[in-house]
Every structure is written in structure tokens, then in C-alpha cells.
Amino acid sequence: MNEKRETLASSLGFLLVSAGCAVGLGNVWRFPYIVGQYGGALFVLLYIFFLVILGLPMLTAEFALGRASKTSIVRSYNVLSSNAGPFKAISKFQIAGNWVLMMFYTTVAGWMIAYPIAILNGWFNMKEITTNADYAENFFKTFTASPSAQIFWVSVVCLIGFGVCALGLKRGVENVTKKMMAFLFVILIGLAIYVFTLDGAGKGLHFYLVPNFDVLKEKNIFDIITAALGQSFFTLSLGIGSMSIFGSYTSRSHSLYGESAKIIAIDTFIALLSGLIIFPACFAYGSQPDEGPGLIFFILPKVFAQMPGGIWVGAIFFIFLALAALTTIITVFENIIAMTMDNRQCSRKTAIKRTAPLLFLLSLPCALSFGLLANIKLGKLGILDMEDFFVSNVALPLGSLAILVFCVCRKYWGWEKFRQEANEGQGLKLPNFLRHYMAWGIPVIILFVFVVSLITAIKNAIPA
User: How much is the pTM?
Assistant: First the structure.
């Protein structure tokens, strides 16, 4: 089956498809509001630092796993090692991570697609926001509580995602994702240029780009470091094989360490650029950027409503969010389909027939969790929060730890084979001196993030 495996058409395709998988709501939704909560530029500097020392070697390891085995996480461990016994169970856990991620991501992606349409057709009345301070929040609550609306938009997301994947790797996933990423860049740059012209935007740029150590009087430096470390870890969605699949589709013409650096640069650029839109806009119109998850749906619509041409600005901004969400949807759907093809030894068409109906049904509990199923909670956590908790706090860190152990431990694949694969081709090479850091340093960091985020999540879940 490996001999007939599909491949991406170009190195650029590999970069943009992989970046499309990484670029998602973590960049354009979670990143800005966490920056706002933790004081701006100081958090940004720490985030970039941790992304380089943690994300770069980990992304390289996941890509190497896929390219060396030429298969998905379902079979990679067995292909690369005759002693992969415990990793058979681990791979099932990683597969589950992809499914659970999509079980709530389809719902949120549906919101992002619905909003620009609602703004443009007047269903979401931007003028009403200027006279009714609670309009944006009430609209969101009404919209998310409607079973018919949520089921419809989840259906749209699934049809788009599986429809693109049904076209094949090159014609569908690669071609469509490349175009989406190009359009995403154009929208980002255009919005940033527009926002920079607003009176008062300079205050937002100062908050975002100039470190202010006075924030340490209000925020514990340990909390800022932990938040930056956690965001840098989770932004690339490493540990569940969603990146390794694209390693299996690429050639050995470029080194994986160098390609990983480029993908992280693209991912970081988009996250930073989204902040360059949000913070100047908020400061220009006197809104606070530290409102948490409600920043996108509650605060920014109020900001857009006050702008010249705010209806168009708001619609374009949510189109940007929709594109970011859909690139992740398409690429993770592709991973789920590829895992099914490898596991069942079936065709792409058969794999889609098996996975599409099941994923749609599994997405419904989250879609209905703000209406019909709103009372299903674990402590304070609703269905979406529980699914997000499993992926972010359990699957990603523990899956990443497993991949690292497999790559650096001689008992399994081993450092020499891993490094040889990572350095095959032109580009930046993985230095040998990182061996002990990847064997001991990163696992300690991962376990630290896992324990701290687990404790924090549990505390937040327990009713006061």
C-alpha cells in the first residue's frame, strides 16, 4: 500500500497544508484573548520563545514519524520498530484525539461560517449594537441555543470538509487549502492596513508590541510564563498524528527541521497579525482586550459597529476566522480518512463513507450543548468544554510525550534513525546536541504543562 500512497504535489503544498492544519482557532481566537488577559507584549515574547524551544523539535519529530513510515499514526510505530508493542494502544488514544477534536471543532467552525452570512444579510444587525449594549451577547446565546441552526451549520462544515477530501489529496486537500491560505493572508493584511488608519490604533500597537513590566504588579510572572508555555504547546496541535500524516505525503527533498521552522514561522505570523488587527481596533474604540473567550463574539462586533464600513469589516473578519477554522477541519478530516484507509486497507471513497456519517453524529452532542443538552455538565464544564479538555489537557501532551519517547529511545526507533530522517534533504539540520534536551528536557516540560493545565482545568471545573 505504501508504494501507491498519494503524495503532495510540491514543497509549497506541504508547507501550506501543514500550516493550514496548525493555523486555526487557537491562533485567531484563543491567542488574542490570552494576550489581552496576560498583559500584551511580555506574553507575546515568552510565547515566541517557548514556540521555538518546544514546538520546533516536537513538530520535527511528528513529521519524521510520518515521512519515515509513509503511513498514518495507525501504523507508523509498527513500521518503524519491531518492538512497538505499547504504542499500538497509544496510537488508538491518538486516533481518539483527532475524533474528539473534530467533535467540537465542527460546531465552532459552523459559528464562524454563519456569522459573516448573518452580518451581510442583516440577520445580525450591526446597527442594533450601537443602541443595545447586550445585543451581540444575546444574539450569540440565541443562535447557539437553536438546535436547527446548530445542526444545519455542523452539516455545512462536514459537507465542506469531506467534500474537499473526496476530491483527493492533490486536487482537493492541497489545492483548496493553498487557495484558502492565500485568501487568508490577503484578508489579514488588508484588515491590518485598515485598522492602522484608525485614530487611537497606536495605543493598541504599543500594548501589543512594547513590553510593559508594570503588568507584573497585577499578574504573577509564573502565571504568565505558564500561560505562554501552554499556548505555545497547544497552538500546533501536536501529539495526535494530525501533522505526521502530511510528513507521510511529502518527499525527502527538504529537511524536516527546516520545513518545521518555516511552518512555525507561518503559524506565528498569522497569530501575531490577528493581534495586530484586534488590539488596535479595541483601543481605537475604547474596548478592553482582556474579556476572555467573549472577545470575538461580544466585544469585537461592538468595535466593528462603530467603524466606517463596519458591516463589511465585521463580515470580512469573520470570513477570515471561517477560513482559519476550515483549513484545520479539512486537514484533520484528511488525517481521519487516511487513518481509516490505513487501518481498514480500503479506498478513500470507502473511508469517507465510513467516517463522514459517524463524525456528523458524534458532533451533535456539542452542537446541541448550548440548547437541548445545556444541562449536561461535569462540574462547570459543558460538553464542548469536556471535549476540549480531553484534547487540550490530555491527548495533546501525552501523545506528544509518546512520540518523543519513540523517536529518541533506542529501544524503539532511536535518536540516530530519527535524526537521519529529519535531516534528509536540503535545509536547516537538526543538531546532535539537542539529543539530551529532547530525551529529558522536553518530556519534563510536557509533564509540567500537563500537570499544571490539569490542575487549573480541574479547579475551573469545580463549582465555587
Answer: 0.91
